[in-house]
Fold this protein.
Amino acid sequence: MSALRFIAKPKLRRPILVVAFQGWNDGGQGATLAAGYLARSWNAARFAEIDPEEFFDFQATRPQVSLVDGETRELTWPENAFFHARVAGLDRDVVLLIGVEPNLRWHTFSELVFGIAHELGVELVVTLGSLLADVPHTRPAPVTAGGSDRELLERLDCGTSHYEGPTGIVGVLQDVFRRNGIDTTSFWAAVPHYVSLTPSPRAALALCERVAGVLDIELDLSELEQAVDSYTEHVSEAVAGDEETSTYVEVLERQLDSDEPLEEFEPEIPSGESLAAELAKFLRERETDGGNSGATPAG
């Protein structure tokens, strides 16, 4: 039995495939936040899904149990699903693959994704990722790019990625598509490492802007922009409570704004887990006091 299940098979016009996965490729959830925002903005419809049974170690990526109406338990399995959208002002369609990086059988998984893309007539694949880096939360998220369409990358004026080392499923997918003659473009947004467990609307915003640039369309990003303002305010207030971290952020800001190397500065800053816990505590206290805790768009 095939691991791919169609709900409905859409008729598409020269589609572009946009891909994002939770997991190693998704620091601060930037990639999946971006893909989820695009899917909602375009009213994308789910049309196919991949059976998780063959591709997940459920002891490593466990299904989740949640309560419905406070009583009924509902089980949610890790999933990878395809959506399609007609985008206003665009003479071609968009397909989105949004899900969770598989644990097992990456060769089989990648060939499966390529097979459906080939069947649908996909002409370009755009993969989204977000990574932890020495960047401040108060500035736009830097984006690096790579891919086979050099003209497109030059037009979008992104920094070129020269990364070498371990890769995730998006790197494997890029290789499969490239070897089969389909152009690929990859965008990676940087997320502050000192607040790595907090969802980053800044990274999501930067990635959505790049996708809009690829499609050459206007995209309403006001919801993400509002989330960025809230994120910046809340993280800044949390960071202000720790002198070392606050000083470290100031150094990152000066380095980015001046574009000149500064004297070496290595403060003892808390881990991402520690600061994320402090931030969560800060937001809970703010909400208890009647403040607005803000809202980050869900992926």
About this structure: The chain has two domains: 4-221, 225-288. The longest strand covers residues 124-133. The helical segments are 30-41, 106-120, 150-156, 169-179, 201-215, 222-239, 243-258, 272-288. Confidence is low (pLDDT under 50) at residues 291-299.
